[in-house]
Specification:
By secondary structure, the protein is of the alpha+beta class. It contains eight helices and 19 strands. The two termini are 34 Å apart.
Length: 352
């Protein structure tokens, strides 16, 4: 039987798979990407906000300096190549929800590292209503992830590197020398299928706990908000009085959306921060691929040396994906070690 041969198969064309393919392209590699449209893809609904102060305690994300540098470099190159503005600088107005948070903020202000990110503290802003104070977060940005994946998909199609296909794991034949799948053969396969990894028999050694999330696109004519608002949820300006409101967290019933009534948690939150009238434009649902330890999963299968993973980006895909894709390609082509904090080796408890 004659097979179409590629060196690499990338399964999944979300943000992780897209940037992986883009990196392989720039290294002049022979690859193919397979994916099937999934309305629950995290990349399709993610806000793409990069915030240097996360959680209730305003901590820097893991390895933030390197992640941020790599992400900015990646998106800037994409901007130049594709002639689009995927990255936009944005400040974030962060509402203090408790007295404890106010005390934490005071402590952070004594640390020179955090002084680069904490801006002016304000008691009010436009028509927003918050009980205590808020502060401006500097050096933030947002990335249009849906535009990136769509633009790169068109690029891959023109390069004959993309196949719209619903993958069947039962048709996959793996050996140390070659991988065969239907009419194709490959040297290596990289699983970048997001939350669908829970259905992957080769990913059974990994620990995933995907989380469903909803966002709402809303129109608020009189809000006139020019920057991102973080008030326990987020409100992202999209232009022309439209905003993206998010996000919920849930661990079951992935296909079901929350009823759009007055008890929807996002609408309750919105009405708690402003009393301005609004109109719901659309409701979207996605499933975040979250791995144990809240860090990505990058690297080799413990028993199959031709099988690799790029997954577990969670809710920080815009920040994590450029770094993880770059490091995996450097591992594959330059034999560089993957950071143990994100390596698949951390799940190999048996040591084999």
């Amino acid at each position: 039987m004659s097979y179409q041969h590629y060196d690499y198969l990338i399964l999944g064309q979300g943000l992780a798979g897209s940037l992986l393919g883009w990196n392989l392209h720039h290294r002049q590699q022979n690859y193919l990407i397979m994916d099937f449209p999934d309305q629950n893809s995290a990349s399709e609904v993610s806000a793409g906000i990069v915030n240097p102060l996360i959680g209730r305690s305003f901590n820097l994300p893991w390895n933030f300096q390197e992640l941020d540098t790599t992400a900015r470099d990646c998106y800037t190159k994409l901007n130049l190549e594709q002639g689009l503005e995927f990255l936009q600088e944005q400040k974030i107005l962060r509402v203090l929800n408790t007295k404890k948070q106010a005390n934490i903020l005071k402590e952070k202000l004594t640390d020179p590292i955090y002084q680069n990110y904490i801006g002016e503290i304000v008691n009010s802003y436009k028509s927003l209503q918050f009980a205590d104070q808020a502060f401006w977060t500097n050096n933030c940005y947002w990335v249009d992830l849906a535009a990136i994946t769509k633009t790169l998909q068109n690029f891959f199609i023109k390069q004959n590197r993309f196949l719209a296909h619903k993958f069947d794991y039962q048709d996959l034949q793996i050996s140390p020398e070659i991988i065969r799948y239907q009419d194709f053969s490959f040297k290596k396969i990289i699983f970048a299928e997001g939350y669908r990894a829970i259905f992957n028999p080769f990913a059974d050694f990994l620990e995933f706990r995907p989380a469903k999330g909803e966002i709402l696109d809303v129109e608020i004519p009189n809000l006139k908000l020019e920057h991102i608002l973080n008030f326990g949820h987020f409100l992202l300006p999209l232009g022309e009085d439209r905003y993206r409101l998010g996000a919920t967290y849930g661990w079951s019933e992935w296909e079901e959306k929350i009823p759009l009534d007055k008890n929807h948690p996002l609408l309750l939150a919105l009405e708690g921060i402003t009393n301005l009238p609004y109109k719901i434009i659309q409701q979207k649902l996605g499933v975040r691929p979250i791995a144990s330890g809240q860090k990505p999963v990058v690297g080799q299968h413990p028993k199959h040396p031709t099988v690799y993973f790029l997954n577990g980006l969670g809710s920080k895909g815009a920040l994590m994906a450029p770094y993880c894709a770059k490091k995996l390609v450097e591992h594959l082509l330059d034999n560089k070690e993957i950071n143990p904090a994100i390596s698949t080796a951390r799940f190999n408890k048996a040591g084999n």
